[in-house]
């Protein structure tokens, strides 16, 4: 039986540094991931994306995040599945 795919979003200083996926099935396309940041302080109007949630029009800084496969790293990297296992061991959810 194959392992359940895991995803880690690595953030430092409030910025996404990388998105890692692990155990992603080769026969499936990579997931599409978008980062939405409602903190618009200091953003230029051209950087904002406008969309509707219910009846409300909102703006946010948005960008597409392309994930990297954990298995493709040739140097030590964060294992999303290991982190999830550690959280489950401590009872965090």
Residue-averaged pLDDT:
89
Number of helices: 1
Strand proportion: 35-45%
* Annotation, overall tally of beta strands: 6
Strand order of the largest sheet: 1-2-6
**Alpha-beta classification:** mainly beta
Oligomer: single chain
Helical amount among residues, as a percent range? 10-25%
Question: Using only CA atoms, what is the Rg?
Answer: 17 Å
Low-confidence stretches: none
N-C termini distance: 24 Å
Silhouette: elongated
Major beta sheet summary: 3 strands, mixed
H/E series: EEEEEEH
Count of spatially separate domains: 2
Structure, explained:
- It is a single chain.
- With 93 residues, the chain is mostly beta strands.
- The chain has two domains: 1-31 and 67-93, no CATH class; 35-63, no CATH class.
- It has one helix at 80-90, and strands at residues 6-12, 15-22, 33-37, 48-53, 56-65, 68-69.
- The chain has a three-stranded mixed sheet. A three-stranded antiparallel sheet has the order 3-5-4, with no helix packed on it.
- A hairpin with a 2-residue loop joins β1 and β2.
- The chain is elongated.
- The two termini are 24 Å apart.
Concise structural overview:
This protein is mainly β.
Keywords, separated by commas or semicolons:
93 residues; mainly beta; 2 domains; three-stranded mixed β-sheet; three-stranded antiparallel β-sheet; 1 helix; 6 strands; 12% helix; elongated
